[in-house]
């Protein structure tokens, strides 16, 4: 006697196929996944050890993991615990509370150069550009970091919080040799605006972390049933080699980096990745594999595990 049971397990890595044959069950793991937007921050370390974080990634069959941390050396703890499939980026937030002032910190450029020269970091970011709060596009720390990324031939994970792609446009055009990974696929922006920037700047890739129903709820990429919106599907098909995704495991999202409340985002990583697996499953298989895995391998120049 043989029959198949299909389970959708929220928080346990998406769709698992369980085949029961003569009373014996075998479980097929979820498809391998490259998570290009992870954090392991000061307010996560107290509730999730590096070993626990690595176990969460393995449970979800994450085979390439890109992590940035505050302070930046915490990212190295994940690589030490997991191996070289974990890719640390150098985040210019040298301690907690620097999200809105990192670009005024005169220590940043020297520390970033030392970190990249040491060979333990493989990119720069994530850092935030927030319209109305800074940094300005001519800020010397911002420009210095991008120049360092070009010098060391590593990518930049950049979060641009703005109502128009034109805020980012002069920067990506100024540095055509830089490889930018645009966090959250523009966050507040719709597919039309994201497409306009990607057309103008072929040195920009985009990733879909945080575009689920918990954050950026006014600029969704899926409908209420979890189906990818047609305009986003068309944009991915237009640029099939330039999209990736990830979890950005932070929680609670409405009270990030609170001094009196730990960040338990790692406990929800399966839920975040399940959201992406559902809409990825609606794409043609070859395209889904690119967004889920192989684009990230090429961009970060790592085969993963």
Protein described:
The protein has a five-stranded parallel β-sheet with strand order 7-8-9-10-11. It has a three-stranded antiparallel β-sheet with strand order 1-2-3. By secondary structure, it is an alpha/beta fold. 32% of the residues lie in helices and 20% in strands. The protein is globular, with a radius of gyration of 19 Å. The protein has two domains: 30 residues, no CATH class; 270 residues, TIM Barrel, CATH 3.20.20.140. Helix 6 links the parallel strand 8 and strand 9. 44% of the residues are buried. Helix 2 crosses helix 3 and helix 4 packs parallel to helix 5. It contains ten helices and eleven strands. The N terminus is likely disordered.
Entry summary:
It contains ten helices and eleven strands.
Attribute tags:
305 residues; alpha/beta; TIM Barrel; 2 domains; five-stranded parallel sheet; three-stranded antiparallel sheet; 10 helices; 11 strands; 32% helix; 20% strand; disordered N terminus
């Amino acid at each position: 006697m043989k029959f198949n049971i299909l389970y959708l397990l929220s928080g346990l890595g998406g769709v698992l196929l369980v085949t029961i044959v003569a009373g014996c069950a075998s479980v097929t793991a979820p498809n391998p996944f490259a998570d290009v937007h992870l954090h392991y921050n000061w307010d996560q370390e107290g509730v999730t050890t590096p070993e626990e974080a690595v176990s969460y990634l393995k449970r979800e069959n994450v085979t390439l993991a890109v992590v940035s941390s505050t302070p930046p050396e915490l990212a190295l703890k994940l690589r030490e615990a997991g191996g070289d499939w974990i890719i640390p980026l150098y985040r210019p937030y040298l301690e907690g509370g620097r999200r809105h002032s990192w670009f005024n910190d005169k220590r940043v450029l020297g520390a970033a150069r030392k970190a990249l020269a040491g060979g333990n970091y493989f990119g720069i970011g994530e850092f935030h550009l927030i319209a109305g709060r800074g940094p300005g596009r001519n800020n010397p720390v911002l420009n210095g970091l991008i120049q360092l990324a070009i010098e060391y031939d590593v990518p930049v994970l950049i979060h641009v919080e703005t109502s128009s792609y034109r805020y980012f446009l002069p920067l990506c055009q100024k540095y055509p040799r830089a490889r930018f990974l645009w966090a959250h696929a523009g966050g507040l922006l719709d597919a039309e605006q994201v497409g306009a920037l990607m057309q103008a700047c072929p040195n920009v890739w985009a990733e879909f972390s945080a575009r689920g129903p918990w954050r950026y709820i006014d600029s969704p990429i899926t409908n209420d049933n979890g189906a990818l919106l047609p305009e986003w599907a068309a944009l991915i098909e237009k640029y099939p080699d330039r999209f990736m995704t990830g979890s950005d495991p932070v929680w609670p999202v409405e009270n990030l980096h609170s001094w009196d409340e730990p960040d338990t985002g790692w406990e929800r990583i399966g839920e975040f990745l399940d959201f992406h697996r559902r809409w990825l499953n609606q794409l043609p298989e070859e395209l889904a594999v690119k967004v889920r895995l192989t684009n990230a391998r090429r961009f970060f120049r790592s085969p993963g595990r």
